[in-house]
Amino acid sequence: MVGRCIATIAAGVLVFSACGSSDDDSGAVATEPPAAAETDPPTGDDPEAALDDLQDAVDDIADDLEATQDAVGGGGATLVANGQTWVFPSVLCAFGEDQIGQPGAVFNMSAIADGLQLYASIDDNGESHSLSLNDIQDFENPSVALTMDKFVIQLVDAPNDFLQLDGKQLTADVVMIDDVTDLPTPEPAQLTATCP
């Protein structure tokens, strides 16, 4: 679960670190993303110290992403699952290979609020969809960790294209896996989001 959380945050930073104000309409600026080494797990003989260092690195990455979201974000997103509702008053979105910088990428969205990150992506020219909600303040003992991706799709017999993107509107109605309990959500989760 730790690796999945770090990968999600790292993906968000790499995609959205280049977002900002610019003279063109793409929303991207010529900013280099952080080096991959910043997201690599620390090594050493003390596992607790390594986890503390890793949490510090995740916190720094999340702070940078949240600052970008506050500066250039807009729109919003709501996820309902397991009888709970999470509201994100601002989101960052990127469309297409040019903005995302990855071959086959169609769409990425990230939103951070109250120590949680909501992340959605459509990749592989629309063939690979993923959606997650993670506690990024305590990835070792998360309060919430919901996932839907190509691995979970096979477990819950869900459609591959569960994210519906219509212009700047994103919706989903899909069962997710609760990584805290290792069980599927009893009812489908509902996502509604609007990109700025």
Radius of gyration: 16 Å
Order of helices and strands: HHEEEHEEEEHEEEEE
Strand order, biggest sheet? Answer: 3-4-5-6-7-10-11
Provide mean pLDDT, rounded.
78
Q: Total number of helical segments?
A: 4
Low-confidence stretches: 17-42
Structural class, judged by helices and strands?
Answer: alpha+beta
Separation, N- and C-terminal Cα atoms? 30 Å
Approximately what portion of the residues adopt beta-strand conformation? 25-35%
Main beta-sheet strand count, sense and barrel state: 7 strands, antiparallel
Helix content: 25-40%
Shape call:
globular
Total strand segments: 12
Which helices and strands appear, and what pairs or packs with what?
Blueprint: H1 2-16, H2 47-72, E1 76-81, E2 84-88, E3 92-95, H3 96-100, E4 107-113, E5 116-123, E6 128-135, E7 145-148, H4 150-156, E8 163-166, E9 169-174, E10 177-178, E11 183-184, E12 189-194
Antiparallel strand pairs: 1-2, 1-12, 3-4, 4-5, 5-6, 6-7, 7-10, 8-9, 9-12, 10-11
